[in-house]
Amino acid sequence: MKFMKLGTRQDTFYTEQATRTLTSDIPSDLVIQINDVTYLLHKLQFALLPKCGLLQRLCCDSSDSESVTLELHDIPGGEDAFELCAKFCYGISINISAHNFVSAFCAAKFLRMNDSIEKGNFVGKLEAFFSSCILESWKDPIATLQTTSTLPEWSENLGIVRKCIDSIIEKVLTPPHQVKWSFTYTRPGYTKKQHHSVPKDWWTEDVSDLDIDLFRCIIMAVRSTYVLPPQLIGEALHVYSCRWLPGITKLKSSGTSASQTDESKLKNRKILETIVSMIPADRGSVSVGFLFRLLSISIHLGASSVIKTELIRRASLQFEEATVSDLLYPSTKSSSEKNYYDIELVLAVLETFLKLWKRMSPNAVDNSYFLRSIRNVGKLVDSYLQVVARDDNMQVSKFVSLAETVPSIARVDHNDLYQAIDIYLKVHPDLSKAEKKRLCGILDCQKLTPEVRGHAVKNELLPLRTVVQLLYFEQEKDSKATTSQKLLKQHEILLGAKQRPTTRDSHNKQSLGPEFNGDVARTTQILENREKEHNRNNKRMDANLPLDLEKKMVIRGRDNEETESEKVRGVKDESSSSFKMEFDPKKIIRRARSKSERSMKRADREK
After folding, report:
1. Structure confidence by residue, pLDDT tens digits, 242-270
2. pTM across the whole model
3. Helix (H) or strand (E) holding 532
4. Contacting residues for 411 by C-beta, under 8 A, at least 6 apart
5. Is 597 inside any structural domain?
6. Looking at the domain assignment, is residue 113 inside a domain?
7. Which residue range forms the structural domain that includes residue 30?
8. Is 42 part of a structural domain of the chain?
9. DSSP state, residue 62
10. Strands 510-511 and 503-504, how do they pair?
């Protein structure tokens, strides 16, 4: 930071009972009162009046020997700024820098210390320092702007704010390879010694030190030039929000205490709303994680519904790019001791995403991009459910509501959803029967892979109804696989029959036999009908009895599977008379599970 030194005399000002004076053999004849401080000075001996046009006008009616008392309570900068001007008049050494330039310049203008009053006066020297030193550097205009908050009207009227902003914008638009001045850049992993090239966002941290109104002026002016990409503008907004907006943890702790005053809350809300209004319209200008952070903060600060709606819309446009960590924010309704995740926030973004997705992709099944997009979101939500399932305070209704919002097309399988349900059941062992039923009702047993289905069959935490459905679908799938293998063998037999020597009928036509005269389609139909008849006659009662009973339990929707063993009416077989037997659903499931395991092992050996 640059500074200007004026004067050579030693500082002899001292304070005595709220009175500032300087060591001198000459008695004071000018008393100036500023607020609670009184200055005892001299009119002519040290050229105070000759340099100050205002004091000349105020003392014009008094004689040179007469003592004069003046009140300058409205001088900009107060007593400190006046003392700089007085020391300049006395020739006492002073240092002017970006930190005290604004107050000194405004006070000098107030006292009319122009070159028209005396050549080489204070105002002329300050203007030269401002234009040649402050505006030519990078950090000095920023530091100068920070001090203008104490004198906003004076700084605006004297052109200090506009000149500093123009200087900053000019340097921000400078190509990075032409940047020669020092700047602040504290990104993790970046060291100036190892990196010779200047990063594109080199200016964002220094500019983030400014007040939100000044920051907005710079960002909007830079955006209007269309020189910098939207992503760079978004990075500047991200850096500023990290610098000024409080974290979620701090918001929750201060929200319930008296320290969170209305003034600080109003200030943070203003910063948030200003940042949201400056986000470029281009998709990807800011990350979806940043949008979720702003959305969570807006809920804690009680921002307007317009701001929340805009953030939800922007986040939904990039929802497929999010990671699980981007979605993990505590709810505003949770207590300070036990937090649960704000699943309603994620649900709101998901619902908006689905509305946009349906409107933009009416034929999404035929469009690979939109299909990939919705499936990425489905996988993201299932992964998020696996994390929030570990929360002790997560309600079943909210968990199920989020899971059900995901359309079926978004899930290729239900493996991830099953893992989330399994975790939830382990963390919440005291769920009621109705809650377990509702939780597992969102699971589609047909969309589980064989490995996951095998694990689910053995899962003691699942309700009996779900296990029965798993066993039924597994048995049905095995039956379809057996049928397809037999059909394949039939076609092989047919192809073999085609290759065998043929006979000729009475009309000298080729024939496969008296039963296979005709075309190939008819021959195939005959083989399939025979195979079906053979299957019906060779069903094993002991293998199909559990399956039939389980199908009846699923279809009728009975909820009393875990009660005492029931009596079931006998099943009639085609070759035997009717009979009755006692059965226990749990024993049947265990028997079916063991049979399923044996069939899976046999299939593995065949592979």
Report:
1. 999 987 655 555 554 444 578 888 999 99
2. 0.75
3. helix 520-537
4. 375, 378, 382, 417, 447
5. no
6. yes
7. 4-133
8. yes
9. S
10. antiparallel
Strand partners of residue 582? 567
String of DSSP letters for 157-225 = HTTHHHHHHHHHHHHHTS-GGG--S------TT--TTT--SPPTTTTHHHHTTS-HHHHHHHHHHHHHH
Which residues are within 8 A (CB) of 501 and not within 5 positions of it... i.e. 6 or more apart? none
The DSSP-derived string for 536-597 is HHT--HHHHHHHHHHHHHHHHT-S-TTSSPEEEPPPP-TTS----EEE-HHHHHHHHHHHHH
- What is the token pair recorded at 31? 């008393």
Q: Are 103 and 75 in contact (CB under 8 A)?
A: no
The closest alpha carbon to 12, from 40, 44, 47, 45, belongs to: 40
Look-up: residue for tokens 């994390």?
A: 387
Question: Are 130 and 105 contacting, i.e. CB atoms less than 8 angstroms apart?
Answer: yes
Whole-angstrom distance between the N-terminal and C-terminal Cα of the chain?
Answer: 77
CATH of the domain at 112: 3.30.710.10
Q: How many domains in the chain?
A: 1
Q: Is 16 among the domain residues?
A: yes
Shortest CA distance to 295 belongs to which of 339, 248, 354? 248
For residue 235, give the H/E element and its range: helix 230-244
Task: Report the alpha-carbon distance of residue 438 to residue 398 in Å, rounded.
Answer: 12
Query: Would you call 64 helix, strand, or coil by DSSP?
Result: coil
pLDDT tens digits, one per residue of 306-350: 999 999 999 999 999 999 999 999 887 655 445 578 999 999 999
SS (H, E, C) 325-373: HHHCCECCCCCCCCCCECHHHHHHHHHHHHHHHHHHCCCHHHCHHHHHH
Structure tokens at 333: 């309704």
